[in-house]
Amino acid sequence: MDICLLKISPLLGTGLAPSQVGKSTFMTRRIVLLLAFAVLIPCVAMAGGVSYTTSGTFSNPNLFPITFIGTSVTDFVGGNLPFGQFDLSRWSLDDCHHCRNSWRGSEIFTLQITETSPVSATVDLVGKIFGHVNRNGRADLTLMFTTATVTIGSTVYTVPFMHRINLGMRSLNGNVDPSALPEPSAKFLLGLGALGLMGLATVSRKMISA
């Protein structure tokens, strides 16, 4: 009799019959799984970054010995980075036959941003570039944009209103800020998360009524 009492004493401590203990354990495991399902699915829906490419064009390509080298970015989560780089080695300095000692003037520069994910669209940032490039290779150019911010979907692209271009500053730096709003394609995953919460609520009610 003492042996039997020792075997069933753990159950006596819980106040539940063996069948009830097994049912309670099963319900607990189900709650844990449903809770993990409900929490992780929305996180998956919010995952991912923005992918895009950049390019630049000049209204008068023969005015300055300069070109723009764009960039390609994949799954960027946001922050500061270069949109591309200006190259002042397009021509040899000896090619400056019509400009005496330097290239001088002004022209329009267009920065084109093409987003491929999460939205497929293209926008332009237009600015005026002016100054001079000397025959000795020294440059003093200023780029002023008419607007510094454009938006594609929920992603905001920002460049400085004024940018200097010389031997030490050739990168066009900016900022990319993907919004925290979920992508349209993630609505299905968010719906699954909601179903998981509904299942969790149902199981909880059953345990309370048991």
**Portion in strands:** 35-45%
**Helix/strand/pairing class, anyone?**
alpha+beta
Mean pLDDT comes to 74
What count of structural domains? Answer: 2
Number of helices: 3
What gyration radius follows from the Cα positions, in whole Å? 32 Å
| Structural shape | elongated
- How would you write the strand order of the largest sheet? 3-1-5-6-7-10
Helix content range: 25-40%
Largest sheet: 6 strands, antiparallel
Q: How far is the N terminus from the C terminus?
A: 31 Å
Number of strands: 11
Short description:
With 210 residues, the protein is of the alpha+beta class. It folds into two domains: 2-46 and 185-209, no CATH class; 50-179, no CATH class. It is built from three helices and eleven strands, in the order ααβββββββββββα.
Can you describe what's shown?
- This protein is α+β, with helices and mostly antiparallel strands and 210 residues long.
- It folds into 2 domains: 2-46 and 185-209, no CATH class; 50-179, no CATH class.
- It contains 3 helices and 11 strands.
- The protein has helices at residues 2-14, 18-46, 187-209; strands at 50-58, 67-70, 72-76, 79-87, 102-117, 121-134, 139-145, 149-152, 155-158, 162-165, 171-178.
- Strand 5 (102-117) and strand 6 form a beta hairpin.
- Helix 2 packs antiparallel against helix 3 (187-209).
- Mean pLDDT is 74; it is low at 1-12 and 42-47.
